[in-house]
Task: structure prediction
Amino acid sequence: MACDFDISGVSMADKKEECGIFGIYGDPDAVQKTYFSLHSLQHRGQESAGIASSNGELIHCFTGMGQVSRVFRAGRGVLERLNNPTAIGHVRYSTTGSSNPTNAQPFLGEFSQGQVAVAHNGNLINAPLLRDEYEAYGHIFKTSNDTEIIVHLMAKPTHVMKPDPLGHVLNHLQGAYSVLFLFPDRIEAARDPYGIRPLCLGRTSNGVYCVASESCAFDSIDAEYIRDVEPGEIVTLDKNGVSSRFFVAPGTVTPAHCIFEHVYFSKQSSVIFGEPVHDVRVRSGRQLAIEHPVDADIVIPVPDSGTSAAIGYANQSGVPFDMGFVRSHYVGRTFLSPSQDMRDMAVKLKLTVVKSVVEGKRVIVVDDSVVRGTTTKGKINSLREAGAKEIHMRVACPPIKHPCFYGVDFPTHEELLANQKENMEEIRKFLRVDSIGYISLEGLLSCASLPKDHYCHACWSGQYKIPVSKVVNKFSMERHQMQLFDEREME
Result:
């Protein structure tokens, strides 16, 4: 269901990319395998990392700021102290809540039913309302993220008494959530009824079950992808193996899978929403070439997420493919850097032009997306300086015009290039390219195999499948302003 409302005043500056989660039950090397799997999911979060583990009676947890290798660096003995047969892990970019150590996950809490650690990927649009309601009744929160709210819901006495307490709690949540719950004796993995964020089930070579945001996490631990966790499903991993139940009746909600997972976030080697990411991106590149052909000498990608689409464009157009940019793997994803100055600096460090490839050539540059446009402009300038004769920009997703309320760092309307420019000619002039072409929304949707109405494309179309009320927007705005004030006070 689409929702029409005014979002012109809502700030998204505190929203960043969704996170990565992994869990494994009953493996003597569970913590080590969680560590390696988090490495494979590092592209989904480079701000903080954490692992919680259980010996069957007690949960231990360790979190820290930075990438996985930094948080669990050798010589500290952290992984050894966590060593237990069941574990969940998390890599994070802040979706709700500021960037600080208290918001790192998994979040470990304790209530009347014992301990629980929670790792969450997504964004709860009703989190501000729930938080205010619980604070009014005297609840004290230790963090500013929306994951802690889930634990407070679990602790409510009337919820504990329900036949399926966890399913009852999940029905109170609105928005995007793929979430892992580590109890002392089991793991519960759940996905929101719309299936916005990915979550899949796997099995190791020795028959141990695991769950992850992306199937690429299974590759690093010699596990196989079995299937997706279905929207509205809770999968339990315990001593009896795997069991499943639904907290929303299957088929009652039309899925709203985030197709931007295929465009940008997910790793090319992953299977997302039932199909390989690389295949979808190659098809999008082919479609882009059909919609926006141009005479040129070479096709080059903006690596890494633009590479598959560039291959498709080259194959369809017959223009040779080459690598005009060399990427440094020691720099994080610039789209997610917190300030524009840092994004500009990161681009220069991350991408180096191969002058011999582009000099004197008519170049087609294929990128996965253009958000603010300033980092893209920097890449174009680098190609000009290297002697490119012509530069034709081709974008493998439609123009991004609207914020995302489901856990993606699309900023305010005022910062979105496609929203601020009236037409393609203005965008072309801003980027200083000879031509520009975006794939159409209809064309992109045709590149994925599921029915077109099973995807969320609100960032392009403005059609929000999960209604976001003006009240929630008001609370989100107020909390964002409070957060900015708190952060200024800390500086």
About this structure: The two ends are 43 Å apart (CA to CA). The first helix runs from residue 30 to 40. The chain is about 30% helix and 25% strand.
